[in-house]
Design goal:
Strand 20 and strand 21 form a beta hairpin. The protein is globular and about 100 Å long. Helix 7 crosses helix 15 and helix 14 packs parallel to helix 16. It is built from 16 helices and 48 strands. Among the domains are: 326 residues, 7-stranded beta/alpha barrel (Alpha-Beta Barrel), CATH 3.20.110.10; 78 residues, Immunoglobulin-like, CATH 2.60.40. An eleven-stranded mixed sheet has the order 25-24-31-32-33-34-43-40-39-36-37. Strands 26, 27, 28, 29, 30, 35, 38, 41 and 42 form a nine-stranded antiparallel sheet that branches. The protein is of the alpha+beta class and 1084 residues long. Catalyzes the first committed step in the biosynthesis of complex N-glycans. It controls conversion of high mannose to complex N-glycans; the final hydrolytic step in the N-glycan maturation pathway. Pfam families: Alpha-mann_mid, Glyco_hydro_38C, Glyco_hydro_38N. This is Alpha-mannosidase. Its cofactor is Zn(2+).
């Protein structure tokens, strides 16, 4: 029980900031330069006349700014055309490359209104703040007796005389969609039998109840059962015997998953339930994720669920909450100024969700009431006292023994209503277990309910039966805060189930697949946008009959495979090796299919004359710019073969903001000419392509061009084979061999200098910053921001963690190091390669187990403010080692650091010296940062990894783990299937100015999901821009979907199950800071 080439996605740690490049393989394309793609106004409350006038003035000012901006752009464009040729970057003597002035401002202002969220008050303080709870607890792990991690529970026999104890026993079966077996193997061996028996056995007695959560399994079973059995299921759901809890495609991991994928799998499950059964989930059930993020309660709340349950929380926190009767609480977002995000949460108090740890504090007694363990079965009780079948002769004694456990457990909670789960992994897979559990428990219930003197009412129930009874006892409607119950903010990372066994290793385990997960997410987002736009345009032109509507099935399958991988043994890297391969094959299959969707949609959208569109699956019009030969290989970039006819590159920007970005492609000749779609020559950087530290790939060159990409738009570039022109800007390369005798293959068309010895320390710079590196190691040493008198020490180094030499050791779940990390000590010094060019410069350092590259873009906008860092890791010859990357700075962070939760929000962390080193690591799905009063250093990541700050001014990330043994959490394997993995980051240094306070066919509608960020304006204003202004939460849809009419806009709950308000054709939308909102949108 559970417990060579670089990755294509990084961006600014918003995984969806990706550019999809497609090669136009035919020269017959027709494109329209005027084609670029560049909402219901639902007021929250009545506003004053004065506020209306202020907003009108602001609108007028915005319109004036837009008019002036358009005039300025027109003048600049006319000036550029008049000059005949675009200005080129130039390289002054003893200086760095200088770009010509941009025709538009690189950074636009952030409205003061958008700063109010970060600056404003946070509302009423919560009763329980998890950072404060961690500071309060001693974590002393005292022996609690029969409840080893708790304390002795006592009660008075007459405590329930006035208000009887109401007990709900909730039968459940936890089905992992992959762990020891693959998803399909589990289904055929166990899950289908569980569900088939469920239909039969539940109909035998209307008092029986059952809950189910994994819709991935349920949908597969549904596709293979008869109409008669489907009707029986609908009856069981309708009469309350069967409840679908949470209703997601899986029970997702909450540490590594991005909120995009968390929402996507919720939508997939909820939409399936609505379509096939007509049910809407009410309660959340998460018994097995290894720690809990505060993002999930927000998503459940916005999906109209009213309550939720969690289990795997640090044993010391459980003990503390049990002692203070705080195991049930209203979970509130830290940024919520009122109560709009509150959701009722039940925390299970004991070690596990299995039967021995759910009836009460003594597992030896509770195990006697797990009737699957009756003598003669395949499993028994470890405490050596087996269950006994319930008979008339023993029912009184047995029921009294069980009631004592129920009463003790109820003392940990504030109400006289008690929840008792009854199940475990893949339980109820045989009819005999259904009979053993339900018949024996019913005899106990009948006895207890027939004895008024015992003051107890016991029955089978669903999860919502329990919550409804609690609400009724408290006299409130579902979702309200029960009187006297606490409010909690924060999260429940990191998790320990016993001793110092912290589940912090899985934050990094199998990082290759964590990276592939984000690549698939980015492609799914891009494919859904392009498909929706193409289909809307096709319908607008009454041409949807010619468009491949079958692509919708590919999108649906990709959503489901992405959802499946969010399972808490998939993205976590904690499944068997064969299961990990199965996940990888599914991810790659969906990635390939999504590229087909992107190709077909881009093909249609790029055509000027849509009537010429013809879909031929055997001969696709476009080709993607990279391929993956297998599920465990890194992407290989496509090399464009140039000839006398032009080749076209179609670049897609999936962001709702205009983007200025460097687009890089590989070509087979240095003699190339790049034109805009208007036919203007574009300056580009020509660089060599390297296959190793000292060898170039013959006849393959990098062409990098600066492109301004419209929001949600496509741009076409032309590639010609031609003699060198004035727009060809060659990068220069220096290669430092560090005394090693290595053969060097030089590029033909790009200058290269080879130095036998190591370099002196050196720097790269652009208009925003200067990054300096060690000539000996090739690693970063400092960053100096333009306009500041002094630079900052920001030095990087590689470290290695070992594992304990005795007793328990690190494994897929656990991180149990043998002490502090030791410096990485390779056999040979690194080869260092320095490349400098007009659009980017980079430093590549080749070590035995890691190749690191730090790139500085010399471009306007946010891309030039940070360092692009990649680490190609290969530790397949290591034994029980974990490779880490540490940044050490002069920032006085005072043992406080910040990590994100699911890419949605930021959570402060504090290094706890009273806890072991491994307890101070946290998940980093998107970013982590340290700061003091003057500066902030942020590490943005393209894949989820574990992170910590073990000393003031440090930030440390675990890159990969290779472990030779199991860590005794049920997997039965170590981590020995490592891959060559490219981890991508952005390193951003900022100056602070203030102190911080239908599955087969597409619907006529699309889902529009919006997230308004909450800005922190304690940083320089220019660092906040994405080449766009903020909008104070307002979004005008007309500017995004040009050429299309807005048919209707219907606000809904997060997963589209509940309409909120009425539909309209207004194009204006307003959101509060941090909120996510979903709309049904019809374009045509």
């Amino acid at each position: 029980m559970k417990l060579k080439k670089q990755v294509t996605v990084c961006g600014a740690a918003i995984f969806c900031v990706a550019v999809f490049s497609l090669y136009l393989m035919l020269d017959r394309v027709q494109h329209d330069p005027a084609r670029h793609q560049s909402g219901g106004n639902f007021p929250r409350s009545q506003i004053s006349v004065l506020q209306n006038r202020i907003e009108q003035l602001e609108q007028l000012l915005e319109e004036n700014h837009e008019i002036i901006s358009h005039i300025k752009d027109s003048v600049l464009e006319l000036t550029a055309h008049a000059e005949g040729q675009p200005a080129l970057p130039h390289h002054p003597p003893n200086g760095s490359w200088v770009l010509p002035p941009e025709s538009r401002p690189s950074f636009l202002s952030v409205s003061p209104q958008d700063c109010q969220f970060a600056l404003g008050g946070k509302g009423q303080s919560p009763d329980l703040q998890m950072l404060a709870v961690y500071s309060l607890l001693p974590f002393d792990n005292q022996d609690g007796g029969v409840w080893k991690q708790g304390f002795d529970i006592t009660y008075e026999p007459n405590e329930w005389d006035v208000e009887p104890l109401q007990v709900f026993v909730v039968p459940h079966s936890h089905n992992d969609p992959g762990w020891i077996k693959t998803f399909d193997k589990y289904y055929y061996d166990q899950t289908q039998h569980i569900l088939n028996s469920m239909v039969l056995k539940m109909q035998e007695d209307p008092r029986r109840r059952f809950i189910w959560s994994e819709i991935s399994f349920f949908s597969k079973w549904w596709d293979n059962i008869s109409a008669q059995k489907r009707a029986a299921v609908r009856r069981l759901v309708g009469n309350g015997q069967l409840e679908m809890v949470t209703g997601g495609w899986v029970m997702p991991d909450e540490a590594n998953s991005h909120y995009f994928a968390m929402i996507d799998q919720l939508i997939e499950g909820h939409q399936w339930l609505e379509k096939n059964i007509g049910v809407t989930p009410r309660s959340g059930w998460a018994v097995d994720p290894f720690g809990y993020s505060s993002t999930m309660p927000y998503l459940l709340k916005r999906s109209n669920l009213t309550a939720m349950l969690i289990q795997r929380v640090h044993y010391a926190i459980k003990k503390h909450f049990a002692a203070t009767q705080n195991l049930e609480f209203m979970w509130r977002q830290t940024w919520d100024p009122d109560t709009s995000t509150d959701i009722f949460c039940h925390m299970m108090p004991f070690y596990s969700y299995d039967v021995p740890h759910t009836c009460g504090p003594d597992p030896k007694i509770c195990c006697q009431f797990d009737f699957k363990r009756l003598p003669g079965g395949r499993i028994n009780c470890p405490w050596k006292v087996p269950p006994r079948a319930i008979t008339d002769a023993n029912v009184a004694e047995r029921a009294q023994l069980l009631l004592d456990q129920y009463r003790k457990k109820s003392k940990l909670y504030r109400s006289k209503v008690l929840l008792v789960p009854l199940g475990d992994d893949f339980r109820y897979d045989k009819p005999q277990e259904w009979d053993a559990q339900f018949l024996n428990y019913q005899r106990i219930f009948d006895f207890l309910n027939s004895r008024p003197d015992l003051h107890v009412q016991a029955q089978f129930g669903t999860l919502s039966d329990y919550f409804d009874a609690l609400y009724k006892k408290m006299g409130i409607v579902p979702g309200m805060r029960p009187p006297g119950f606490p409010v909690l903010t924060g999260d429940f990372f990191s998790y320990a189930d016993r001793e110092d066994h912290y589940w912090t290793g899985y934050y990094t385990s199998r990082p290759f697949y964590k990276s592939l997960d984000r690549v698939l997410e980015a492609h799914l987002r891009g494919a859904e946008i392009l498909y929706s736009l193409a289909l809307a345009h096709a319908r607008h032109a009454s041409a949807d009959g010619r468009y491949p509507l079958s692509d919708y099935a590919l999108l649906s399958n990709a959503r489901r495979n992405l959802g499946l991988f969010q399972h808490h043994d998939a993205i976590t890297g904690t499944a068997k090796e064969a299961v990990a391969v199965d996940y990888g094959v599914r991810l790659l299959h969906s990635l390939t299919n999504l590229k087909r969707v992107i190709i077909n949609a881009a093909h249609y959208l790029v055509l000027g004359d849509k009537d010429t569109y013809h879909h031929d699956p055997a001969a696709p019009f476009l080709s993607m710019d990279d391929t993956r030969p297998s599920q465990d290989s890194l992407p290989e970039k496509t090399v464009v073969k140039l000839d006398t006819s032009p080749r076209f590159l179609v670049v897609f920007n999936p962001l709702e903001q205009e983007r200025l970005s460097v687009v890089t492609m590989l070509v087979d000749s240095p003699h190339v000419h790049v034109l805009s779609e208007e036919g203007q020559p574009l300056p580009f950087q020509l660089s060599a392509t390297w296959s190793s530290a000292t060898e170039v790939v013959p006849d393959v060159y990098q062409v990098s061009v600066l492109a301004r990409l419209p929001a949600l738009g496509l741009r076409v570039l032309q590639l010609h084979r031609s003699l060198d022109g004035h727009a060809t800007l060659r990068s220069s390369t220096r290669l430092y061999l560090h005394g090693r005798d290595l053969p060097v293959r030089k590029p033909e068309a790009v200058p290269l200098q080879v130095f036998p010895a190591a370099a002196d320390d050196f720097c790269l710079e652009n208009q925003h910053l200067q990054a300096c590196f060690s000539g000996h190691s090739g690693l970063l040493q400092s960053i100096h921001r333009a306009g500041e008198e002094q630079g900052h020490r920001v030095s990087s180094e590689f470290l290695v963690y070992g594992t304990r030499t005795s007793k328990d050791k690190s494994g897929a779940y656990l991180f149990l190091p043998d002490g502090e990390a030791k410096p990485y000590a390779p056999k040979n010094p690194p080869v260092v390669r320095v490349t400098e060019g007009p659009l980017f410069s980079e430093v590549a350092s080749y070590y035995e187990h890691v190749q690191t590259m730090v790139r500085l873009y010399n471009v306007p906008g946010v891309e030039g403010l940070s360092l692009d860092v990649s680490c190609l890791v290969d530790i397949r010859d290591h034994i029980n080692k974990e490779l880490a990357l540490r940044f050490s700075t002069d920032i006085e962070s005072d043992n406080t650091f910040f990590t994100d939760l699911n890419g949605f929000q930021i959570q402060p962390r504090r290094y706890q010296r009273k806890l072991p080193l491994q307890a101070n690591f946290y998940p980093m799905p998107a970013m982590a940062y340290i700061q003091d009063m003057q500066s902030r250093l942020t590490l943005l990541t393209a894949q989820a990894l574990g992170v910590s700050s073990l000393r003031s001014g440090q930030l440390e990330v675990i890159l990969d783990r290779r472990l030779m043994q199991d860590d005794n959490r049920g997997l039965g394997q170590g981590l020995k299937d490592n891959k060559r993995t490219c981890n991508r980051f952005r390193l951003l240094l900022e100056r602070r100015t203030t102190a911080n306070k239908d599955d087969s066919l597409p619907s006529t509608e699309a889902a529009l999901i919006l997230h308004r960020k909450g800005f922190d304006c304690s940083l320089e204003a220019k660092n906040l821009g994405f080449n766009c202004t903020t909008s104070q939460g307002k979004l005008v849809l007309g500017g995004l979907f040009q050429g299309l009419e807005l048919g209707s806009l219907q606000p809904t709950s997060l997963t589209l199950m509940y309409p909120l308000g009425t539909a309209s054709n207004s194009t204006n939308i307003y959101l509060d800071p941090m909120e996510i909102a979903t709309f049904r949108i019809r374009l045509g």
